[in-house]
Amino acid sequence: MLKRTAFVCILVLLLLPAFAFAGSQQESSTGSTGAGATGPQYGGTLTLNGGASEPPSPSINDAHHASLAWLEPIQERIIHGDTEKFGPGGNGEYAFQLVAYIPPQYQKGHLISDWDLTQERLIWTVRKGIMWQAVDGVMGARELTADDIAKDVQRFVDSPWGNRFDGLLKSVKAVGDTIVLEYDNYSPELFYFIGYEDRAIISPPETTDVDDSAWENQGGTGAFAFEEYVVGSYMSYVKNPNFWGKTTIDGKQYDLPFIDKLIRVIIPDESTAIAALRTGAVDHMGVNSQQWDTLEATTKGLERNKYGDMVNAISLKTDAPPFDNRDVRRAMSIGTDYEAFKRYGKAEDFPTHVFPSWSGNPGVYTPMEELPADVRELYEYDPAKAKKMLADAGYPNGFEMEFYINSEGVIDVGFASLLQNEWAKIGVKVEIVARDYVTYRQYRDTFTFKGAILAGTQIGNATGSVINLLGTDGWLNYSKYSNPKVDALSAQIAMEMDGVKQNAMIKEAAVIAAGDVANIGAYLIPQGMFWWPWVKNYHGEVSIEDGTFGALVPYIWIDQDLKKEMGF
Q: Which of 325, 427, 466, 503 lies in the 20 to 30 Å Cα band around 494?
């Protein structure tokens, strides 16, 4: 209890006088990088912002997406991005700033040492010497086996999330030190789903014999072990002394992780979270673009990256009126002032046409000037024309609709208000349905919302943008969009192994979908992470998995000397 009380009190003391502290810290940290240590240090604590919501049940059968980030320090995935070799700290070839996609050439085995892939099957070879953590009342420490992984993949397939495997995965079985996954139908998405997608963390089979919704029962092969969860405050993790991972820095090999403890704090209020970063109570966090100017003006010395491969998209429910009518959906696009939304999202530097293909990939993206005229007109704001189109489609007086958002997102709330005002000009009355993050995700991920929903949609994965976002049965197809031509292209894309041919089909499908307007891509979301310079061996990477930061944490070390020099 003393440990809990001490941490909470320290956090409160740091946050309450945030603005008073900021002035002195700016003076001490301005222009200061500090010599710091001459090499990596072991020890210390890394504190991250865990977000506004409490961690929900970690049971895979409860299917709470929000639990996954809290599990990452404990459990690992099959595939990682090879940031040591190709990232900013390696040869600098790739920045690892796509949220949900690792190009094949930058992948490496993590829990596996090798893999062999054909259109009929995938074979993984388990890496030797990886140990499960001991968890009181659940299991003792033992070596990871192929059977463990096969059972966990099967549990994933049998879970509420398993519909993504329908018609694709035939069987999973352990054969010696390998796992053999046989396909009903080949899809490049399968490798992603079970290799490095955020739900693909591997948990021990022993958790099926206990209450797997309890955090204290969670075990894994990860760099950290669960320590405690204090409701409304934080979850903490301690170093796993038997972690198998290693890294090489300046030619010298080091055991991972460097830090002794990881803390993810729960901060419901955004301004309080920003204050925690400014005062050094939090070492690293993502900050929405609305706060960038103020944060940079008031707090000197912070490091920052900037990236964008997600779109704030208005997903229109196309399987029910009024959005089952293509003409209505096209009218909504013409009645949307894209430039106003770009200004709101601080995305003026990004293209206006941003969905469904990422503009950073010329192989699959069609620039605005190359779009067909009937698609290009969808981005030309004309409320009078939109209103007439609605009348011609059978809605002379407009209509009422619901728009679902995450109530905990400041940007989401402002976005909804802007949309409400914009669409009122074309006779559409928008009722904003704001729910907490967990409830919002349930509405979105189960497709049970009505009208439309605001979805931060990842478009960096070129094949996934078609198969998952646009395919009739796509698991990210929140709009329930369906077009036979797109489905036919999606099937071809899934089977095509020639990258040039595959890209051409992705490009064609993307233009068709853009013209159908199941989703209105309002703007490419500028994203940024801020961190203090004492966070070492980190170079602005976003993820080496599926949009998750957890796998990067073991590589980070804290320069205690620099932190002290900067007045913290």
A: 325
